[in-house]
Amino acid sequence: MAYVDEVIEKVIKENPSEPEFHQAVKEVLNSLRPVIEVNEEQYRRDALLERLVNPERQIKFRVPWTDDKGQVHVNTGYRVQFNSAIGPYKGGLRLHPSVNLGIIKFLGFEQIFKNSLTGLPIGGAKGGSDFDPKGKSDREVMAFCQSFMSELCKYIGADTDVPAGDIGTGAREIGYMFGQYKKLRGLFEGVLTGKGLSYGGALARTEATGYGLLYITDELLKCHGQSMEGKTVVVSGAGNVAIYAIEKAQQLGAKVVTCSDSTGWVYDPDGIDLAALKQIKEVKRQRLSVYTDYRPNAQYHEGRGVWQIKCDIALPCATQNELGLEDAKQLVANGVLAVAEGANMPTTIEATEYLQQSGVLFLPGKASNAGGVATSALEMSQNSERLQWSFETVDSKLKGIMVDLYHHIDDAAKKYGFNENYVVGANIAGFEKVLDAMIAQGII
Ligand code: NDP
Q1: Ligand 1 atom 48: the closest Cα is on which residue?
Q2: Is 126 among the residues known to form the active site?
Q3: How many CB atoms lie under 10 A from the CB of residue 157?
């Protein structure tokens, strides 16, 4: 049996209740075959892939907090420090009821390659909790964040592990966590990214993932004789990534006609009203159903449905496995040109394969949403320098990173004979640097 297959089998056997982790491992390892096969015996002897798929450390802890009525609740906190071969651990904290160890492991595993692709010295990690900030008062969110950080602070630091935001962890949560870290450790250091501008945050971090997604999509299109100008774009999600993807797509001359949240979706044939969307989601924290109060010509539907709308470009920006095979068939039937992932693993493996076989240009999230973590690493640089760069400086570095990243994955795909397969290109390009570093550092 091929070494890659042996390791996939072991991962499934040893982690039976972690389907998202299996999916991520299969997707990555299958595309690494050309690199592994060259040196299969040595890698098997050195258990290289076993070391890659087993986190260096995983921490699971109790998070007790008291609600406004005096009731104590207990959530579970996680931090999976996956791989530090090329730099300190870096990756977000997800606060969502669906969080479990398997989800955090899939995200942490993907993060290794994504972080490597940015070209910056950051290792891979992820964390979070099954706590749901929705519907909680500010005081309850603070109580949770302080309790969460009281334990997490023992394992992180500016040079060891630097968490960031993710679903459910925005500027408010990062602020409460940073405050608690500083109080407990007595250190004002760049231990978290996504901080507020008044205490070490980076300009353009809020926009970075969405903007970066559009910078790389634009470069992909340019290299295929196209541009964003005049394109119809379908976006899912209405959170941080979706909002700034919509903003940059509009700036580049495209028309974005959809967005969605976990209860429903909006179709606005005249183009999404970004000011209204920001007001609903960033200021008032409301459901998307109120969008039609701002735009009477738009339609609101319960459930899922954005992928049935005809478009040139599709940008899934909500959550994992939100674009399945039937959705992919619908997109292809409607003539989609490119799909670029803003979220982490939003497209199922079957849907990805169908899109690629149908000639759709497909950018995987570990490449196309890397702008967020890249800018987080730029926030770390600014914190180390005790300086704050201008918005324009950060934005232009972000653009440079995303354009380089596109060419890096395109070159890797071509080098191994997988022209235009950016999934293979991203996995190989991300892996090669980690592989070099792991080999150089010996069996650890
Ligand atoms: P947010 O929490 O800001 O927004 C998430 C959006 O997706 C919301 O509109 C939310 O709806 C919707 N959503 C969440 N879970 C589900 C679900 N189970 N079903 C349907 N819709 C859902 O998160 P972000 O925008 O920050 O993150 C979105 C994705 O991008 C995630 O996969 C994240 O890991 C990834 N990512 C984020 C980065 C960042 O910098 N923020 C960086 C790289 C990747 P509702 O409003 O109802 O909650």
Answers
A1: 262
A2: yes
A3: 17
Alpha carbon of 237 to ligand 1 centroid (Å): 6
**Segment 52-76, tens digit of pLDDT:** 999 999 999 999 999 999 999 999 9
**Stretch 225-236: mean pLDDT, rounded?**
98
Nearest protein CA to atom 41 of ligand 1, as residue:
166
The phi and psi torsions of 438 (rounded to 5 degrees) equal: -65, -40
Burial class (CB in 10 A: 0-12, 13-18, 19+), 138: exposed
Pocket test for ligand 1, best of 240, 320, 373 (most atoms within 8 A of CB): 240
Its pTM stands at 0.94
Residue nearest to atom 31 of ligand 1 (CA): 343
Backbone dihedral angles phi then psi of residue 55, each to the nearest 5 degrees:
-60, 145
- Distance separating alpha carbons of residues 121 and 379, to the nearest angstrom: 13
Q: Which residues pair with 190 in a beta bridge?
A: none
305-314 burial, b if ≥16 CB within 10 A, otherwise e? bbbbbebbbb
Verify whether ligand 1 is closer than 6 Å to residue 104 (CB atom): no
> Among 297, 267, 261, which residue's Cα sits nearest to residue 280?
261
Tell which atom from ligand 1 comes closest to the C-alpha of 96.
Answer: 15
Give the model confidence (pLDDT) of 174-207 as tens digits.
Answer: 999 999 999 999 999 999 999 999 999 999 999 9
Question: Cα of 261 to ligand 1 centre, how many Å?
Answer: 9
Contact 53, 22 (CB under 8 A): no
Place of tokens 């509009």: 250
Cα distance between residue 146 and residue 131, in whole Å: 13
| Confidence at residue 98, expressed as pLDDT on a 0 to 100 scale | 97
